[in-house]
# Entry
Amino acid sequence: YCFASDDDQPSDHTEIYIKGYAHRFGIEVEGVHPRLEIEPAVLARVKSLLDNRGIHPGTDFIVIHPGPTLPVKEWPRESWAALVRELRGRGFENIVQLGVGKVMRFGETPAPSIPGVTPMVDDLSLEESIALISLGVLFVGIDSGLLHAAVSLGVPSAAVWGATSPRFLYAPAESRSFIVSKVECQGCHHRVPMLHWDTGCPYDIRCMKTIGADDVFNVCLSILEPVKT
# Structure
């Protein structure tokens, strides 16, 4: 079973991937993520696991996913650490880090260790990870499958974007809380020729490195404060 997707064979894009793919078959779609449903038994298992670790999801429960993934999609570890410090300084201390320590393209890759969070890297299956995300009041991450899951669950998401562009992957209503780099080469993945991972980014991945922790924190706060109050 093998088919070519727009993401695998890049070309100059003008619309959301799912719409472009559907158009090949004469199908019209809205371009929004379908809603995911969680199996009750899986959710109960995850809640039990969290309870055993003394983690109690509530109005301050935040899930983060910093990677690892392709280097051009990663936000620097120092930026993650600064964001977590700011969140904890505002009283949001119930933060869990998800992820895996293996990237399909690169093999074993250590996940960044973020101070001040409860690490659950490599602790959950994909289904369990999605169930855990469903318990959060906020998901903070990079361009990844878990971000797609969070949006499909209706969990408010603050995502950091550099080499890829959310406008080709998410409907506008789904991406209002996303933080997109302002460098001129932002979105290079969608251009022909690509500038990034096959040859190495010629600009030292400045798209991600120039997004400040304060920029992401302010978006997070706009989501969290109404929930907490």
